[in-house]
Batch of 2 targets.
Target 1
Amino acid sequence: MQESKGEGHGHRHIPDHVAQYFAHRALDDMPERAYEVIVNLTPEEIAVLEKVGAALGECEEQFKTFALH
C-alpha cells in the first residue's frame, strides 16, 4: 500500500503481512456471499468504494446503511 494524501485522509504504509492479518480478521465472520463479492473486487472498484466511504464519513449511520442498500 502506498502512502497518499487526499480528501482529508492520510494513508500510511502498511506492511503486507500486517494488512493480510487484519484483512483476515475483518473478513472471517462475513457472510460467504459478501466475502466472495469483496475479495473479487477490482482495484478500480475498491477506489470507488473508498470515495463513497469518504463521502459518507460524516453521515449518520442510518444514511450509510441506506446508501449501501
Target 2
Amino acid sequence: MIELKLPEIKSLPRGDLPVKMLNNIRKPKPIPDAWQSIIMIILILAVQLFLSLTAELFLSYLAVDFVLTDFVISALGNAIVIWLLLQKISSPRVAGLFQPKLQRAAPYLGTLLLFAGFLMLQALVNSHLWSLFQQSFTDYLEVFSPLMEHNIFISFLFMVIIFPLLEEIIYRGIILEGLLLNHGRNFALLFSALIFGLIHMIIIQIIPAFFSGLLLGWLYLKYRSLLLVFFAHAVNNAASLTSYQLINFTEIPEMEIALQYQLLLIFGGLILLGLGYKICRADILKQDRHPEKTS
C-alpha cells in the first residue's frame, strides 16, 4: 500500500491575507447610524405611548397621582430603550460611557458660564417665539404647567436629575457617539442636535432645544464626558424650573422687554458665553499639552 503524504496547510495570519480578501471581510457597523437614530426616537415615543395607554387603562379607577405617573412613564420609556440599546453596543463602549471622570474645576466653571450666557440669550429668543406662536405657547403650558406646579421635590428629582441623566445617555452617549463613528464629527453634531430639538415636538421648544443640543454636543465632543454634559443639562433644567416658580408665565406673550433689558441680555449673554468658551478652550489646550493630567 502506498501512503500518500499531503503537504501540511497552515492558515495564513490575517496580515498575510490578500488585500481583496481583507476588503471583503466586513466589520459590523457601530450603532446607531442616522437612520437607526431616527428609529430609536420612534421607538422611545412608541414605548412611552404604550406605557401611557396602559397606565390610563389600569389606573383610571384608582386615586393615582397622574402627574407623577407621567414623570415615571417618560423616564421608564427612556430607560427601557437605553437598556435595549446597551445590549447591542460593544462592552468597551458601554464601559466608557462615564469616562473620563473630570475632577478639575475648569470644565465645570466654563460649562456653567457657557450655559448662563446661553440662558440669557435663550430668554430673549423665547420672548419673541412665545409672542409669535401663542397657540404653541398655550400647548406648552398645558403640558408642562402640571409638571412644574407639582411637588417641588418630585419636579426637581425628575427634571434636574433623572431626565437629564437619561437624555444625555441617549442623545450624547449613544446617538452622538454612534453618528460620530459612522458619519463624522460635523454631521454627528448637527444631526444629533436636530433630533434632540425635534423630540421636544412643541414649536417654541424645538429651536432652543436644537441650540442647547449643539452646545451639549460640542462639550461632549471636546471632553467626551457624559458627567459634564449631564451637569450642563441639569443646570439648564434647574434654571427653567426656577424661572417657572418665579414668573407668571401666562402673562409672557403680552409682555414686552424694554430695549435696555434686551441689550443687557444680548451683551451679558455674549460676554458669559465668551468667558465660558475661553475657560473651556484653555483647559482643553492644557489637557492636550499634558495628557497625563486629565483628571
